[in-house]
Amino acid sequence: MTTTEVPFAAVIIPHFNDHTRLDRCLSALWRGGVPSDVEVIVVDNGSQPPLGDMSDFPGLRVVVETRKGAANARNRGVSETSAPRLWFLDADCVPADDWFAQARAVCDKADIIGGDVTVFDESGPPRNGAQGFETVFAFDCRSYVQELGFAVTANMLTRRHIFYRAGPFIDGVPEDKEWCQRAVRTGADIIFAPELRVAHPSRSDWSALRKKWVRLTREAWAAHRQRRFASGLWVARAVMVALSGLVHLRRVFQSSKLTGAEKRSTALTLLRLRGLRSAWMLRQVVGLSV
Fold it and tell me: What residue stretches are annotated with the Glycosyltransferase 2-like domain (predicted)?
């Protein structure tokens, strides 16, 4: 592809301080074979140390976005390409070997396509509670698309005119959910494509899992607090979050992916996390930080 040709699609990958996983992600893409009419853009958020030699990935473009946050990095990636199709991945994902072939096959079937995301552990068995929790509960992508109307940007395809019509990603909120639902309100359709597959590592321990949910809880409140009766609705949701821990114990103990000991540690993590999330949400209502 020459510099004057418009690419068929652009793959946009935000990155910050996760060099090893980015290398794994790119290695998977290049192993599957990057088509000559598709460009891959890594948008680095000012990592330290900076990204080094990327010559193992011929044709890769690396740009730096100084404004922090994956939303800003994705927006920068869109501005760096003229491709009419925008394909989003996360730096810690491992695309399947046929990811490009599947992306090309499904990309024009809808305005937004959400792919599947499976979870894998980066350490050997047995799973700890955090890994077990992610194994059971993380990335229910089919339900996200079909019931909630959004796809995760860890594995999402869309089109440039849809992006422009909906507007850019917004930092500080759940940007993939907020953007997709905003796009759907403008008339975009969305489908789930299970054949478009990536794998995502589970959170390795309680600290990593807690950090994830602190961020998600902050982002969810930032998006919710502008609604009418926001505080009352948030309190009600906090109560439901706490109760959901008990309700979802059944999913843990019925999971075929966990051993008996893993089920017990996962159940304790589930109850601990849902209780904490409920407490964080109540703190937010009275103006305390999480």
Answer: 11-163
